[in-house]
Design a protein that fits this description.
By secondary structure, the protein is α/β, with parallel strands linked by helices. Helices cover 38% and strands 14% of the residues. A 7-stranded mixed β-sheet has the order 2-8-7-6-5-3-4, with helices on both faces. Strands 9-12-11 form a 3-stranded antiparallel β-sheet. The protein has a two-stranded parallel sheet with strand order 1-10. The longest helix is centred in the C-terminal third of the chain and has 25 residues. The mean pLDDT is 95. Keywords: Aminotransferase, Pyridoxal phosphate, Transferase.
């Protein structure tokens, strides 16, 4: 069928490398897939069983449009107990994933043509999500030499009279960098000076390895201008449950709730019950997952350090390794293609995360250490990497 019925906004738009990787992964039977951040672990049985029991007890209907009251109470309790932050109960709602939360946020806060600053390398959907809400993404690059901490002067130079918000992601996908508190405080100062909203995408809170995670909203003065997005997808390996939440000023959250009533109305009730039980069991469930991924990342980092024409900063957080392959003399896409064709290892080329990602690959640690070693054994045998 002709694409004439497709909106001009989407006509001819290419699929993202993330979705394309799913299509190519099946070309070889022995592929080691390091492309997508979908943990291979199954959700903890205790969460599944508790959610199932709740479904059998009748939790199969619409919930309150802000979300299941028990779940919202538990989210607020987590922030008090784990981060010492008491949030306004009217400023929390449950979303159908953090991606959905991002769309709701942008749809709610942006007028047509408003600019949103995004730090690159960035989570691939950010610019698209901003455009969905008729905003304009403004990209500010961060550099390996700075440990991917944004330079305040570069951030300030990107701010104009049309700037509405700054999107932050820490621990970061794809670099694994964790926003230093001093950098966060400088960003907070700029947000106050220019009257901006900070959208804090914090879905990898459990995967902050060097020091305990501190939410951006805990910076003094930021509670009235921060919208925090979180999810149970990664910390609790619950990607398929599609459940997340947003914290923000009560007036903004109310408007997001109203927008959502015309979108999906409420998040799935069974998934909300699963999230409730997951948060209640977080101290038993999350630490083993965190230690597992940290061990995988450190093993992959060791192998990168042993491989000619590859390098990487020591992982600070997340479940990804951001690998510098500039010494190959090839583009990221060329390196990724050769690794796939010759070693049957699937990675994502850096430009999928912004132009400054050229010369890098993202590796997701969603396979076991034996498979990681197998992948690097194959890569090491390639002539491109000294084999």
């Amino acid at each position: 069928m002709s694409d004439r019925f497709v909106s001009t906004r989407y006509r001819g738009q290419a699929s993202t490398p993330m979705s394309s990787s799913v299509e190519v992964a099946g070309r070889f039977e022995d592929v080691v897939n390091l492309s997508l951040g979908d943990p291979e672990l199954t959700t903890d049985t205790r969460i599944i069983e508790a959610a199932t029991a709740d479904a059998l007890r009748g939790h199969t209907h619409y919930t309150d449009t802000y979300g299941d009251p028990e779940l919202r109470e538990e989210i607020l309790r987590v922030y008090v107990e784990d981060h010492g932050h008491e949030h306004d109960p009217a400023g929390v709602m449950v979303t159908t994933s953090a991606c959905h939360g991002m769309w709701l946020t942008l749809e709610t806060i942006l007028d047509d043509g408003d600019e949103v600053v995004v730090l690159a390398p960035y989570f691939t959907p950010y610019p698209h999500q901003i455009r969905l809400a008729r905003g304009v993404p403004v990209v500010v690059d961060t550099l390996e030499e700075d440990g991917y901490q944004v330079r305040p002067e570069a951030l300030e130079a990107a701010i104009t009279e049309r700037t509405r918000a700054i999107v932050l992601n820490t621990p970061a996908n794809p670099t694994g960098a964790c926003l230093e508190r001093s950098t966060a405080e400088q960003i907070a100062r700029l947000a106050e000076e220019h009257d901006l909203v900070v959208v804090a995408d914090e879905i990898y809170t459990a995967f902050s390895y060097a020091e305990p995670f501190e939410p951006f909203v805990t910076i003094p003065g930021m509670v009235e201008r921060t919208i925090t997005l979180n999810s149970l997808s990664k910390d609790f390996v619950m990607t398929g449950w599609r459940i997340g939440y947003a914290l923000g000023p009560a007036e903004v959250i109310r408007a997001m709730k109203d927008v959502n009533e015309n979108n999906v109305f409420t998040a799935p009730s069974v998934s909300q019950r699963a999230a409730l039980h997951a948060l209640r069991m977080r101290h038993e469930i999350v630490p083993p997952i965190m230690y597992l991924y940290r061990g995988r990342l450190m093993r992959a980092w060791e192998r990168v350090c042993e491989t000619p024409n590859m390098s990487a900063l020591e992982p600070g957080g997340s479940i990804y390794l951001w690998v510098n392959v500039k010494d190959t003399g090839l583009t990221s896409a060329e390196v990724a293609d050769r690794i796939f064709e010759e070693a049957h290892v699937l990675t994502l080329p850096g430009p999928a995360f912004g132009d400054c990602g050229e010369g890098y690959l993202r590796l997701a640690m969603t396979v076991g250490r034996d498979r990681i070693d197998e992948a690097f054994d194959r890569i090491a045998a390639m002539s491109l990497f000294g084999g």
